[in-house]
């Protein structure tokens, strides 16, 4: 009877997961989704304009002695002749001026060289294989988190390496797979450094915030302090779940221990030495330019937050990947001349072709939504309603985290979700006194936690294949049941950390406040 109940429960879980996968796959591609949403905005704007929908709100005029100004905004009919003529002339500039476009492309130039030269893979393998037995789980989770600065590198390199490393210590390989996958995917919004996603999210948040405050700029470093602390929290939770829940449940591995080697070659060791020396020299030069108050990259008044260093952080981070990446390639023999460097950059940029298509349609949706004034109307009406029912502050933020975690099961592309959600939630929460940086941090928590149990996530199928290497009967249900403790643990732990951060009113990043003067 117990076995029958167990099979029944398992079938219910599998059916639920199959339903999620089917629903997610039934959705159009993200680019098509934005096209549909743009058309929907045009139709809704016409209806709202005909009905005379408008909102009135108060703003503070800082240029006029902080005088309170009452502003009324009405819906704009995007199907009117005037609007259509105006919108057509802005299609190209909507795309080229989309904030996330330039920042992502800039940093990917450096990351593509560091990755393509083999440096990132060698670093991950060197760190993982150097870990003592007592720290192997924590090291695998931590490296998984750190690998997300280079987008998909962790999925391809570290996840299978986690299994091999665990086998080398006589442990279950699937536990190693799970620990690595949890770090790479579940820890997507934690890191000690900024990666390719940070400027992308900041760009979308900036454009959303500009609906309310045209001069507001969200820095790519806006969540860095919180991400930095999150790295250690997620590492600790991932280690505990692996050692105390996942691996004991798996039992002893009965399969053959494979003799795969991930030792570094002599060329790779030489490359890492070159990269280390280059990185140290580069960091020393940056410190010389930043630390002194009269340094080259400090502001004219000696300030730091408004300095050229902070304004040019994306380019500086790009060089942090590019220079050691070239040095590694020269030392390891994977880069012979300038053409090789350009080829690696070209290959990295070509990998963003899907991102460019997505951004084209996302940019149109964002700008059409702003032009229609529907975003302002929705944010004002929504903020007034939430304030009237008392659903504000921390409970509201936690609700956003949970909502994002649920949506992530169906729409796994993080940039697509934020491009849809940011124009609504960023200005709405700003009116309730919460900064765009705070709203973005809450979104990223929810987005990360359910990555590892979302069948629609692009690398989920690859992870199922890795599982099947060590368990021929493994399927979607196997992976999700293994990863669910991580997902719940990360969600709970991250919310607790967020509550502490919120209560203490700590800055989320350099010059990134928790609250916004509503």
Automatic annotation (TrEMBL):
Keywords per UniProt: Membrane, Transmembrane, Transmembrane helix
Domain of life: Bacteria
Transmembrane feature ranges: 31-53, 95-114, 134-167, 174-194, 224-242, 274-293, 313-336, 348-369, 389-411, 418-435, 441-467, 479-504
Name the record gives this protein: AbgT family transporter
Taxon lineage: Bacteria, Bacillati, Bacillota, Clostridia, Eubacteriales
